[in-house]
Specification:
heterodimer; A: 308 residues; alpha/beta; Rossmann fold; 2 domains; seven-stranded parallel sheet; 11 helices; 16 strands; 35% helix; 19% strand; B: 178 residues; three-stranded parallel sheet; 8 strands; elongated
Chain lengths: 308, 178
């Protein structure tokens, strides 16, 4: 089988030839990170659309789990289509924006309810994230009629390229109420841009809010397992027959490990093979959890492992 | 300068100033994602040749009436997290500022008292520099916080315990005669 749970350390083996068929054969489905795996910027990774098509024909499920909190799943569905991936629907896509909204819905609205009396959410993020929170039935601070005394019950930190000191101060004001949750969409410290530069990630903004408020954020995204819970609830995935494919050791691969999935590192994104090997050589127990079971140069390398 | 476009992908196209050799993070009520982005660019370009310096790690600046606003420490943390490196912090509890004072003035630590309201900056610096330390309770620290450190088994926390405390520095007046 391809289960990745258990006590032994992963060994970062290149997946190819017979090994590829042995690993992919028993798999019922694959979870893919998006940025750096399926595409880089506006360009699909060569062969990636064909891989998804071949998975579909092999009867294997493909689901998507992304820490990127910029886009709504509806926007992501359009992006998949625009970049040449066919048949990917919004319901297959689990972004940290969607899952943060689901998390807040659970915590603020309980099992249901219409939102009145649940309080509002102060969102540090763009319109994609704000839309997901609204779609979950929650009300945003600063929008629409606000009932007198209606409290802000959560501060949600996401990717916010309009982040300012004033917003930081405002968030802190809400967080003085110990009943107000502090939630972050993901822990990513930075994201790569297509020319090799980097843009600061949600993790850096969350660090500012945590420092200012003295609180620790609940982080929805990988490597924490909440997004996997969302996937299991909707699709009933069996971890022992599911592979996690990602490009970032500290989020994707650790997420796989935490969820009991076998992991495949693809080298078209953030992490370098040398980093995985360094973790493997490290004495620290935590470092071992960042070592993938397998790696490939690109997910196109998985195609030969599928039946024609 | 105006941002060259609406998104980070545009901002990172603007040329960097060739002579920049340090990023200094202090209190900035106009802090923004765009500035954070720019700081990250300089730090990545320069690597170890570009210093990352923070003025202080205080997380909160108290205002009148118990209110407060975020302080430099929050912004330093944002830059450190994005750049995945640690800043050199000039301010207390680092002894750098005491060294500046001692360079300008003949200070004998054994005959000098450090007076402050914050344990992890003022008192810690004073204790580290061999000064006598005096906590005043008119600021951020309550006495039970001190007791907590005192009663803990942890030597690092004992460094946060002042030699003395007063309710206010006005309480020092009677000791100074008429």
């Amino acid at each position: 089988g391809c289960g990745g749970g258990g006590g032994s350390m992963a060994s970062c083996r290149r997946l190819s030839g017979a090994g590829l068929r042995e690993v992919l054969g028993p798999a019922q489905g694959l979870l893919f990170d998006c940025d750096g795996v399926l595409w880089a910027g506006e360009r699909a990774v060569p062969g990636a659309p064909e891989l998804l098509e071949r998975l579909r024909r092999s009867g294997k499920a493909a689901l998507f789990v992304s820490n990127n909190s910029r886009r709504s799943v509806a926007e992501l569905e359009r992006r998949f289509s625009r970049l040449g991936f066919r048949g990917v629907r919004a319901e297959h896509v689990f972004s940290s924006a969607l899952c943060s909204a689901l998390f807040l819905r659970q915590r603020l609205l309980g099992g249901g309810g219409n939102g009145s009396g649940a309080g509002r959410v102060f969102v540090l993020g763009g319109e994609g994230l704000r839309g997901e929170v609204r779609d979950a039935g929650l009300r945003l601070a600063g929008e629409g009629e606000q009932a007198p005394g209606e409290p802000v019950r959560a501060v949600l930190v996401g990717y916010d390229d309009q982040f300012t000191f004033a917003k930081l101060a405002q968030a802190c004001g809400y967080l003085r109420d110990p009943q107000c949750l502090l939630v972050a969409t993901d822990p990513d410290p930075w994201h790569p841009l297509s020319d090799g530069q980097r843009t600061p990630g949600t993790g850096s903004l969350t660090a500012a809010v945590e420092t200012a408020s003295g609180r620790k954020a609940l982080v929805v995204g990988k490597p924490n397992t909440y997004m996997f819970d969302c996937i299991v609830e909707r699709f009933g995935v069996d971890p022992s027959r599911t592979l996690m494919v990602g490009d970032r050791l500290e989020t994707d691969i650790l997420f796989g490990k935490n969820c009991g999935l076998a992991t495949i590192l693809t080298l078209t994104g953030v992490s370098r093979l040398e980093e995985a090997q360094a973790y493997m050589a490290s004495d620290s127990a935590a470092a071992k959890d960042l070592v993938p079971n397998y790696y490939v140069d690109s997910i196109a390398d998985l195609i030969p492992g599928l039946d024609e | 300068a105006a941002l060259p476009g609406p998104a980070p992908a545009d901002w990172v196209q603007a040329p960097l100033e060739p002579a920049v050799r340090a990023v200094l993070v202090g209190f900035d009520e106009h802090f923004s994602y765009a500035k954070l982005c720019q700081a990250l660019r300089y730090l990545l370009r320069g690597g170890s040749e570009c210093l990352l310096v923070g003025t202080n790690r205080d997380h909160r600046l108290p205002l009148e009436g118990g209110a407060g606003i975020p302080d430099s420490g929050c912004l330093v943390k944002a830059v450190e997290t994005a750049a995945q490196r640690e800043a050199f912090i000039v301010g207390k509890p680092n002894r750098f500022m005491f060294d500046c004072v001692a360079q300008e003035f003949p200070v004998d630590p054994a005959r000098t008292i450090m007076v402050g309201d914050r344990l992890d900056t003022d008192i810690l610096m004073g204790n580290s520099c061999g000064l006598t330390t005096l906590l005043t309770l008119t600021g951020v620290t309550a006495l039970d916080e001190v007791r907590g450190h005192q009663d803990s088994g942890c030597p690092a926390r004992h460094s946060l315990v002042p030699d003395y405390y007063v309710d206010s520095i006005a309480d020092l007046l009677p000791a100074l005669g008429q």
